[in-house]
User: What shape does this take?
Amino acid sequence: MNRRYRKTIIAGNWKMNMTASETRKFAEELKAIMPRAKWCETLICVPACNISTAIKAFKDLRVSVGAENVYFEEKGAYTGEVSAAMLKDLGVKYVIVGHSERREYFGETNETVNKKVHAVLDHDMNPIICVGESLSQREQGLTPEWIALQVKAALAGVSAEKLRRCVIAYEPIWAIGTGKTASAEQAGEVCTAIRATIRALYGARVARSVTIQYGGSMNPKNAFELLAQPDIDGGLIGGASLKPEQFVDIINAANQE
Assistant: This one.
């Protein structure tokens, strides 16, 4: 982490978990153990049906609420989708865009990810843009090129001014939900490469201001070491964000000196 130039952000991604009543219970448990904020911004991205409940439940906890997905059209005949304007009106601050599960199970492409990034930015919210490689791509040595392609495609047409509101989350697909984790050195190398890609596009001053998270099974046991890497500025947390004690342990790791 480098707090001199950019924010440290710990974000929970609940995926398709937690009912509204479970969200309220989680908030009560979290309130009892939540540390005082130092340098770390904390947010939890919840299912769309829980957003209003979460905003009320977390309002006294210094925890922002994010969404897990968005549709890129402003309005129209898109049954079941949720627009950026709808999320903004609810009070959402962050939106996850291009998560590997969205790409794999719901056919998201680099093109649709880019459209969603613009929709989120146009409504003054902050996109958390996910990029990552499969195990076969890593084994073939394709990681740098693949990640650079995803970053460039996601940021196409995004101005330097708007880029400062973007967060990049590196999530090696082979480490999501598998219990496997990239070593701190492996994760740090890719995050450094992401910053180099941004530097080539926007220059050094802009690149050093962008928060880059690690999103591959970060947990209380590995968080401190991962967050000690100079280009890892936070985490996009899956399973551990569903358990208040584990989530707080990761927040504490992000507040390390």
Notes: The CA atoms of residues 221 and 250 lie 9 Å apart. The domain at 8-254 is CATH 3.20.20.70 (TIM Barrel).
